[in-house]
Fold this sequence. Notes:
Layout: E1 6-11, H1 17-29, E2 33-38, H2 42-45, H3 48-55, H4 72-79, E3 82-88, H5 90-97, H6 104-110, E4 115-120, H7 124-128, H8 130-142, E5 145-150, H9 157-168, E6 174-180, H10 189-192, H11 198-203, E7 208-212, H12 218-224, E8 235-240, H13 263-273
Parallel strand pairs: 1-2, 1-3, 3-4, 5-6, 6-8, 7-8
Helix pairs in contact: 1-3, 4-6, 5-8
The structure holds flavin mononucleotide.
Flavin mononucleotide binds next to helix 5.
Amino acid sequence: MSKKIKILLGVTGGIAAYKSAEIARLLIKKNYLVKVVMTRTAEDFITPLTFETLTNEKVYPYNAVEKDSPMLHIDLARWADIILIAPTTAEFLSKILHGRADDMLSTICLAYDKKLVLAPSMNKNMWANKATQENYKILKKRDKIYVLISDGECQEGTTWETLLFAAKHKLENLIILIDYNKIQALSKLNDALPLHNLVKKIQSFNINCVDVKNGHNFSSILKSFKLKNKKKLPTAIIFNTIKGKGVKEFENDPVWHARKLSKEELVIAKKRLGF
Ligand SMILES: Cc1cc2nc3c(=O)[nH]c(=O)nc-3n(C[C@H](O)[C@H](O)[C@H](O)COP(=O)(O)O)c2cc1C
């Protein structure tokens, strides 16, 4: 059985904090391990008890201290595979940008070197404010940009032009995720334009390329994100997948590029997927 993914859910003091309870509930339902860290202001919007009940774990407040874990912020940063901050206030966005660490959640973020996912949420004028926009722009540049494309798009010339551009400008924070299910819009890839050895093709464009043999396996997916980018090049990760995976009646059929499930087919899909 693959290892459970550990998500540290950071909750900051915005009006959307009430939605974090639903996020916690859904993550638990999906079998993730979830720990919640709240800012002081977040507790004005929602109580720790809500998260404690949903996650069955204790919730860490802004000033959390533990006798037997004096380096709690380091321990929690190491524990998390992913940190998701939802909602992220304008204030917290600016804190992360400047590397401030004046409470538990911001200190964990500073000690953390993996995937940080932010869900900014605020009034539209606060979002449009130059200060917030400039903060956001800098954070985006500092961070990685993920682009999801299909193998059908790898049959298009503009995709290869873009790869040339990315390599020329050494866009090292660009990660291209390729859903390689060998099916394009209307047919099997090989019946239209075969890509043959896609890894070699991409590498020949001076782009790092990782081949994930089983694109449905979460541990393999997570491992592929840990590539050490020594040459500071853009990276492409190929996920070998099966269209319609898990519903054997529908697997590998190009028809599902555009067709909707009928009521009867929905029943079959739900049954196969265990809903
Ligand atoms: C009623 C109320 C609602 C607020 N809603 C938001 C919000 O949705 N987004 C936001 O960025 N800030 C909002 N704020 C401002 C933050 O609460 C404030 O900046 C706070 O210092 C954020 O602290 P934190 O990021 O440490 O949680 C709101 C303030 C109040 C009083």
